[in-house]
Write a structure and sequence with these properties.
By secondary structure, the protein is an all-alpha fold. Helix 5 runs parallel beside helix 6 and helix 6 runs parallel beside helix 7. The longest helix has 12 residues. The N and C termini lie far apart (62 Å).
Length: 180
């Protein structure tokens, strides 16, 4: 029985064997310093102690955005800020607002802005609202109703109007004069 559950675990998380193996050998006191694994940055979210086993030279910019978003202390000398795409910036700033001064705001598209503003609505003043689609606006207002005052209602089209049912009635009353 235990063999079958282990096999399914390996199918779900390809790096699982490596992580568990390193942890197990470390607990037993074996030397694991030479075991540089390619787990990717995702494993660091819950296990920052495994950083010493990762080969950071293999990290792409998405990996770095995860590291900086969840454990910026692991990248004290990071200097490739200009290489981040909008999605990476959205990930970083959703968790670490102190890096906002390094952000190239022009790299964020509508989906990046929507994701960021759901977590950090204080950045609305930097947002180029024309980039937000009908879907982006409805996602935003559903997640953060306070942002309804910034909504460009004329951009909400088609089936997205039925999403208004998700909004609190008070928001619809407050902005009814803006509705077509």
């Amino acid at each position: 029985k235990s063999g079958s559950s282990s096999n399914s675990t390996y199918l779900l998380w390809p790096y699982y064997d490596g992580v568990v193996g390193i942890l197990w050998r470390s607990v037993r006191g074996e030397n694991t310093n030479k075991e540089k694994r390619d787990f990717g940055a995702g494993v660091l979210i819950d296990h920052p102690e495994l950083a010493k086993y990762l080969d950071f030279s293999k990290f792409n910019m998405l990996d770095w955005s995860i590291v900086i978003a969840y454990h910026p202390e692991l990248a004290p000398d990071f200097d490739r800020w200009k290489d981040f795409c909008g999605s990476c910036w959205s990930t970083i700033l959703s968790h670490q607002v102190q890096f906002a001064d390094k952000c190239d705001w022009d790299k964020l598209n509508g989906y990046d802005w929507a994701e960021l503003l759901m977590h950090q609505p204080q950045f609305m003043n930097k947002c180029k609202r024309k980039l937000l689609s009908s879907e982006n606006w409805m996602d935003l207002i559903t997640a953060v109703p306070e942002l309804a005052e910034y909504c460009q209602w004329h951009r909400v089209t088609g089936n997205h109007w039925r999403w208004h049912l998700r909004l609190p009635l008070m928001h619809l009353r407050k902005y009814r004069n803006l509705l077509p």
